[in-house]
Amino acid sequence: MFFNLFKTKREPRPIFEALGTDMHCHLVPRVDDGSKCVEESIECLQTLKAVGYSKVFITPHFCVPRFPNNEEDIKARYEELKRQVKEAGVEIELAGIAGEYRIDSGFAPRLEAPRFLQIAGKYVLVEFPLHQQLMGCDELIFDMQMKGYEVILAHPERYPYLSVNSSRMEQLKNQGVYFQINALSLGGFYGDEARKKAYTMLDNKWVEFMGTDTHNTLYAQALSDLTCDRKVAKVLETYEFLNKTL
Hints:
By secondary structure, the chain is an alpha/beta fold. It has one domain (15-238): TIM Barrel (Alpha-Beta Barrel). Helices cover 35% and strands 14% of the residues. The chain is built from eight helices and nine strands. The strands form two sheets. Strands 3-5-6-7-8-9 form a six-stranded parallel sheet. α1 (38-50) packs parallel to α7. 39% of the residues are buried.
């Protein structure tokens, strides 16, 4: 009996047409833990196009001390990437440069002289430290809101200290914070706990946005594979995300 030892590579399905816009990815080369070169960025963007996205906002990390990025430098690097993507003939719209701002020791000084790069000129994407909560996060978010910013919390399903049953998560929702889950969380890319929390949050209608959080070609391939997941496809067919409004 003959056994095929090689899996047939399945073509991606454009299930993310339902979203249209990816509002969280790390494809400006060499500025954070995302893409390492223009070629990798272009390959990832081609995959995003293949799975159904037509528009992309790129959101590099801003966090101290690991990625102390400067907004003006990031904007210049983004414009160069746009030029190279156009030359490569990738048919996807680079709709803008924003940021993923970690609420860390460097965040309060940044808030004193705000210069946040915003998604669609409206939203600021923030993240908490992944493994240990910083005291005063909620107060800093409130201060942002008082300055007129609409705040999106990136991938709340990935913070092990933030339980879906906690009063704190409900408090964030009552505070008017938008939640963005990662598409790959639904496929178990970050572990079973993140997957369960993401689906529970969807069941609770606590999610407004879905992002790919694409960093490199490994993420892009996982996203392509995810398009064969019928449960994920059903979520995209039935859940009212706000990505289309961007």
